[in-house]
């Protein structure tokens, strides 16, 4: 699957000094679309994500998908020699992505004002738990606590049980998307407007999901309602939720619009509901949601999952089986879209990872090279691009700088 295609961000040079998931994922998305991403890692240690599960034996299985298309350089930017080298790399970069606690880079003498001296056009993307300002700015921030802080966790689960956190790092990945979006926006402004300087872009982890809950904000502001836990789209649409089929499988069905419900009523041969005062609009159905759910649930239980899918597809009603990863691996849509691809791995031989999205008609992104070994590109970048000699690289290694 490794290709030589170039994506729309070909020519953009990025330094990624972030660790774990959120900011690094943003850098990977940019790399997938052609950006040249150099990942700076601590000598003999590397990104902490290299030690995070799941594993196969001792191999971290998240690393190949999250660090692909990057090149790894080991460099201790806290040391004097490391700072000098780092600033030389900054002088050749468009974007710096970091996720240290606010004030850390400044403490090391590597704040934006200092880095601007090496490259006035630098865009600095800063991701932290709570943002660069505010009373919580210096608090440690991770995805799952950030999800709780955002208000998202409060909504998840059943009302008679404790709130449920996402079973994976949802907030980190969502923040990574914002990170990529912010970087390309800043570069667009700098270059299209021909600006002589770059700028700092920053956000807190919790802000990415909080931005997606405008309904929650307006509802509390205008109605004083504190929305609680519900297993589905409570208060949005009716019918909506998870339903069991005749063969004991599950599907998700959502009628977000009246026209969608109209088609469902036709499929159920219950067009009488379209004239009924309790069911004819979404707002009325929400008032009588329990009745609606009973009708729809009973009807769905008459069909196997496969029969239901075929029937509702024919009427244009959005429904989906609840897929396991095994189901996904066997699904023809995922295959046709190349949503799962295979890449080389230095010890496992091959490993499957997510494909590149979104898809561009003229400048498709690609997986150009596998996730790097720690310091794999020291000689290529520090020697080839910065001109350090073999002797200098050897000395820096002995000093623990690289």
From TrEMBL:
It comes from the Bacteria. Keywords: Transferase. SUPFAM superfamilies: CoA-transferase family III (CaiB/BaiF). One of its GO terms (molecular function) is transferase activity. InterPro entries: CoA-transferase_III_domain, CoA-Trfase_fam_III, CoA-Trfase_III_dom3_sf, CoA-Trfase_III_dom_1_sf. It holds the Pfam family CoA_transf_3. PANTHER family: SUCCINATE--HYDROXYMETHYLGLUTARATE COA-TRANSFERASE. This is Formyl-CoA transferase. It comes from Priestia endophytica DSM 13796.
């Amino acid at each position: 699957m490794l290709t030589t295609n170039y994506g729309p961000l070909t020519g953009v040079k990025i330094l990624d000094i972030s660790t774990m998931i959120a900011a690094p994922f943003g850098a990977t998305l940019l790399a997938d679309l052609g950006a040249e991403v150099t990942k700076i890692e601590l000598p003999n240690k590397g990104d902490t994500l290299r030690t995070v599960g799941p594993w196969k034996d001792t191999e971290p299985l998240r690393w190949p998908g999250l660090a692909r298309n990057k090149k790894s350089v080991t460099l201790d930017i806290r040391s004097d020699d490391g700072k000098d080298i780092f600033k030389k790399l900054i002088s050749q970069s468009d974007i710096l992505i970091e996720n240290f606690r606010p004030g850390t880079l400044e403490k090391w003498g590597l704040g934006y004002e200092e880095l601007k001296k090496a490259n006035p056009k630098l865009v600095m993307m800063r991701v932290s738990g709570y943002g660069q300002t505010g009373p919580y700015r210096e608090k440690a921030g991770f995805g799952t606590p950030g999800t709780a802080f955002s208000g998202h966790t409060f909504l998840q689960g059943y009302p008679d049980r404790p709130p449920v956190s996402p079973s994976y790092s949802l907030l980190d990945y969502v923040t990574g998307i914002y990170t990529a979006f912010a970087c390309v926006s800043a570069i667009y402004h700098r270059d299209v407007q021909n600006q002589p300087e770059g700028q700092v872009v920053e956000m807190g982890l919790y802000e990415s999901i909080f931005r997606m809950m405008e309904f929650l904000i307006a509802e509390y502001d205008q109605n004083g309602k504190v929305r609680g836990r519900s297993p589905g789209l409570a208060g949005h649409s009716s019918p909506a939720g998870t339903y069991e089929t005749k063969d004991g499988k599950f599907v998700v069905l959502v009628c977000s619009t009246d026209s969608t419900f109209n088609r469902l009523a036709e499929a159920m041969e219950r067009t009488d509901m379209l004239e009924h005062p309790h069911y004819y609009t979404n707002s009325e159905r929400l008032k009588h949601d329990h009745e609606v759910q009973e009708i729809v649930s009973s009807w769905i239980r008459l069909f196997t999952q496969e029969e239901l899918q075929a029937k509702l597809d024919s009427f244009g009603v959005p429904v989906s089986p609840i897929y396991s990863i095994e189901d996904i691996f066997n699904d023809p849509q995922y295959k046709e879209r190349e949503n799962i691809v295979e890449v080389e791995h230095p010890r496992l031989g091959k490993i499957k990872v997510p494909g590149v999205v979104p898809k561009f008609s003229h400048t498709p992104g690609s997986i150009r090279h596998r996730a790097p070994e720690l310091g794999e590109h020291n000689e290529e970048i520090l020697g080839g691009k910065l001109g350090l000699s073999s002797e200098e690289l050897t000395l820096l290694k002995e000093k623990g700088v690289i």
